[in-house]
Design brief:
Blueprint (H helix, E strand, L loop, with lengths): L4 E4 L18 E6 L7 E6 L6 E6 L7 E3 L6 E4 L14 E5 L3 E7 L8 E3 L4 E7 L2 E5 L2 E5 L3 E5 L5 E5 L4 E7 L39 E11 L2 E11 L4 E6 L4 E4 L18 E5 L2 E6 L2 E2 L13 E2 L4 E9 L13 E5 L4 E2 L3 H7 L4 E2 L1 E8 L4 E3 H5 L24
Parallel strand pairs: 9-16
Antiparallel strand pairs: 1-18, 2-3, 3-18, 4-17, 5-29, 6-25, 7-8, 7-29, 8-15, 10-13, 10-15, 11-12, 11-14, 13-19, 16-17, 20-21, 21-28, 22-27, 23-26, 24-25, 24-28
Length: about 400
């Protein structure tokens, strides 16, 4: 996120004295990536940011993952998944591997606890709802269609104004725009489908008072992902100013300009972000192919190196007609076999000039396993819908 912002009160030179009106010194914190060699920000605290008074175990929700074995396509119906209402603790794991995890939650309107993911960045897609995310950097509002990108180790909390459906993509790495969209100095290039104007970060400090304040921290040990409840002497939201290139921001899918062509364009033209060993794409309402013999829906393709996860969030997804896929569905098409449109969808798409569909795609370069939340809402008939029959019934179709 190499786009500079300056918020609140900062000194003219970094690493120099910065004092309040009474002469008290603010405490400077460098929050940076990749060991002082990548993006960073400098934050100025009223209190000591490392003043910890207690540390206890925080028991995470079930993180168990089950391999996709025997190998088959999966359909997971997220709108049938019962979750807790806390935007953080209510998440249920749907899919995951050693690089990225996908969780889902339907919130209430109570704020989450203060939370920090020390494993990697989070990119949370807002399927529906409104609210704000408060953090040490300030406040960013969110709305339906937003990606909320939160850098690793950012202390924050979710404050829903209404019930919010949140699709959380939790990385073991950083999440950023694709390098091919950026100049060598980090500016968005002319061919990129969005630009700096579309990214919305905090605009003012957000300062709170408090003592003995708990923060839930998700982190890793040799035994896997765990949680710790850290208690701080003073409130972490005590930052009077900051500047730099590392901070939370939102990007709304309405600001993504789809790239189209005379014939069907491959998924990389729909890419919006990338992390280590995975990419995030969005398929949005758009004009489609204009060659007189074009086939607008995708051709069959074999995921030689990746698993493909599609989360269907709007419109009517043309390629999946007849499969049982609806809004709120996830399809998992794993590496190892060919997949593509339902057979009847190919002829039905001919002559179309516009698709009204919205989906968020995550492609991973390591196999995905099913979380307990994904297993709880699987449609077991989906894998057989291309053939129209399955192992137990000569005419099994996915329930719609």
């Amino acid at each position: 996120m190499a786009h500079y912002r300056s918020v609140g009160a900062i000194p003219p030179k970094r690493h120099t004295q910065h004092r309040d009106d009474t002469g008290a010194l603010y405490y400077e914190e460098l929050m940076g990536e990749e060991g002082f060699s990548s993006d960073s920000s400098l934050l100025y605290h009223r209190g000591v940011p490392s003043a910890l008074v207690d540390s206890q175990v925080w028991e995470l929700a079930d993180q168990t993952r089950t391999p996709n074995h025997p190998l088959k396509a999966r359909h997971l119906k997220l709108h049938s998944l019962e979750t807790g209402t806390c935007p953080v603790e209510g998440r249920r794991l749907v899919l995951g591997n050693s690089d990225v995890r996908i969780a889902y939650v339907v919130t209430g309107t109570e704020p989450s606890p203060l939370y920090r993911n020390a494993i990697g960045d989070e990119c949370v897609y807002v399927e529906s709802g409104t609210g704000t995310v408060e953090s040490v950097f300030g406040v960013v509002p969110y709305r339906a269609g937003d990606y909320v990108v939160i850098p690793r180790a950012t202390t924050h909390r979710w404050v829903p104004a209404s019930e919010s459906r949140l699709y959380a993509i939790e990385a073991n790495s950083h999440i950023h725009p694709p390098k091919r969209y950026l100049s060598r100095f980090g500016q968005f290039l002319e061919h990129a489908p969005y630009c700096e104007r579309d990214l919305h970060g905090p605009s003012s400090p957000y300062v709170m008072e408090g003592e003995n304040v708990d923060v839930l921290v998700k982190h890793r040990t040799s035994s896997g992902i765990v949680g710790t409840r850290m208690t701080y002497a003073t409130h972490p939201f005590d930052v009077v100013g900051w500047d730099g290139c590392l901070y939370p921001y939102t990007f709304n899918v309405d600001d993504f300009m789809p790239i189209t062509g005379k014939i069907h364009q491959p998924p990389p033209v729909h890419q919006v972000f990338e992390g280590w060993n995975f990419v995030i794409c969005n398929f949005l309402p758009r004009k489609v192919d204009y060659h007189e013999l074009s086939v607008p829906v995708p051709y069959y393709h074999s995921n030689v190196d990746s698993d493909e996860v599609m989360f269907y969030v709007g419109g009517d997804y043309e390629a999946r007609k007849g499969s049982g896929i609806n809004l709120g569905s996830i399809s998992l098409h794993p590496g190892g076999y060919a997949h593509g449109p339902q057979p009847a969808a190919i002829e039905a798409s001919l002559g179309a000039d516009y698709f009204d569909e919205s989906a968020v795609m995550v492609d991973t370069f390591a196999p995905l396993e099913l979380g307990e939340g994904g297993l709880a809402v699987e449609d077991p008939a989906y894998a057989w819908t291309w053939a129209g029959r399955g192992p137990d019934d000569p005419a099994v179709f996915s329930n719609s």
